[in-house]
Design a protein that fits this description.
By secondary structure, the protein is an all-alpha fold. It is built from 7 helices and no strands.
Length: 184
């Protein structure tokens, strides 16, 4: 890498960006698909839970960013089950607003309000973040678009209805901090 020229790295960046752009949404859909399977004691599996979360957010008039965040909030379970919230937030952060990223990053802890106390934990652990400007939004997300999204009778939108939105959001410029986007 040390011997590369500006032209080399402009070309490599362009080729990499083209490849990522062409495959990112399909890769995300594959990861979402991996949430299908056992219900693990819940009434629906994690894939259905994710669709239901996004459906409720869309029907609730939430921003495109939050709808995408709702759809992908548990995607980290596929590759980082011990840290799924941070993993999912890292995936969406370059493409969505700060509020949505914060919600996705903290939803696991905030969701604990509904069950930590049953396992000997502190259901109010989320209070450590009470000074955050996104605290109320995360609390509302968990109440409206997470803890209640295990209903097997809910009329959930199909994944195909979210694909155009995924393409729109994940087509936004991202990239490395301090590096200008590649030129076409």
């Amino acid at each position: 890498m040390e011997e590369g020229t500006r032209e080399d790295y402009e070309r490599l960046t362009r080729l990499s960006d083209e490849h990522k752009s062409a495959n990112l949404v399909d890769n995300l859909l594959t990861m979402l698909d991996m949430l299908k399977g056992p219900n693990l004691g819940y009434q629906v599996n994690r894939y259905e839970h994710s669709l239901q979360s996004a459906t409720r957010a869309a029907r609730g008039g939430e921003s495109d960013d939050l709808v995408v965040g709702a759809l992908l909030h548990d995607i980290g379970d596929v590759f980082a089950p011990a840290n799924h919230s941070d993993a999912a937030a890292s995936l969406v952060a370059p493409y969505v607003d700060e509020r949505t990223t914060w919600i996705v990053r903290h939803h696991g802890l905030f969701q604990g309000y509904y069950f930590f106390h049953h396992l000997g934990g502190d259901r109010h652990a989320r209070a450590a973040y009470s000074e955050s400007p996104h605290y109320d939004a995360c609390e509302a997300f968990c109440a409206d678009y997470d803890q209640n999204c295990f209903d097997p009778t809910y009329n959930t939108m199909a994944i195909d209805e979210f694909v155009p939105l995924l393409h729109e959001v994940f087509a936004r410029p991202s990239g490395l901090p301090g590096v200008a986007p590649a030129r076409p």
